[in-house]
What we know:
eight-stranded mixed beta sheet, 12 helices, 20% strand
Amino acid sequence: MSSQSALEVQDLARWFDVSAPWLTRVLERKPRRILKAVDGVSFSVPRGSTFAIVGESGCGKSTIARLAVGLHHPTRGEMNFAHGAGRDGRMRAQMIFQDPYACLNPRWRVKDIIAEPIHELGLRRGAAAVQARVTELLGLVGLARSDGEKYPHSFSGGQRQRISIARALATEPEFLVCDEPTSALDVSVQAQILNLMMDLQREFGLTYLLISHNLAVVRHASDQIAVMYLGRIVEQAPTEMLFRNPQHPYTRLLIDTIPDLEAPNRARQPLAGEVPSPIDPPSGCTFHPRCPYAQDICRQVSPPMAHDNDGRAIACHFPLTTARTSPLAGLAAVSAN
Ligand SMILES: Nc1ncnc2c1ncn2[C@@H]1O[C@H](COP(=O)(O)OP(=O)(O)OP(=O)(O)O)[C@@H](O)[C@H]1O
């Protein structure tokens, strides 16, 4: 494992057995059904950086987040953190969820919620030291000492997310897995929480795995983006490269769904159709039924992942080259006639 990496993921897969119960299967002659939520994903996350995973609902993002914090075990492949379990035997990866309210005990005061992991892990000795640390953590996330006396229901969604960040920081993590941390929040509050996360990253050298269905949300917060479709990464690149020159048709279509204030009249191809079921995925390239460029080979052969020297990886038989980034717009213009 490279000393620069905080996390290396190699050929990671997580399958779920979604078959009917055994007796039903035998009596009704139903086949076993396997859902490949994540199927052969590889990436590495440099220390102190933010690696975002984006894609539509059901593509496997949350399953990767859960694998990262040990809530799922891989069916195949590996996920290695640089720090391992740490010298003190504890994992330094913590998770921040979409719905902070569901993760905060409603009967506990905020100061007790934040103090619990400090006490559990023995990170401070004595009530005064724990209390001082709680006050420090509240300050770090922009809350007042007096907020510690209140219960979670007294806070807005954004403030609750600040509380769950403080609780995560209480464990002194090196790695935070953030699963849709802002999607339950108003747009203005989303930016505040993302800015807070970026400030904390700079201050403590944290590494983030940021999961989102929304490319616009991760654009300013991430260093690299992996775009997932039906359990696989279809394109991965440094953030600005991905936005400037998306090469997978799916990435291009996702970018086209972002309202663009600078070019509101730009021709766009809508992202048509639903994500197919991962229980019975399409043959070949699983994106082919929705792809404007699909040809016979796309229906038959799954494209391998190709890496270039600039840090881009892409799995597509017909990547959009720079000269070809506008045919989608061309198609839209043709279909409008
Ligand atoms: N425990 C499970 N048992 C069976 N299927 C599961 C389980 N967890 C996830 N899945 C399925 O795996 C696929 C990927 O789910 P996952 O939650 O990882 O996707 P996602 O991209 O995070 O979507 P969303 O944004 O809707 O959560 C989905 O089809 C989902 O129904």
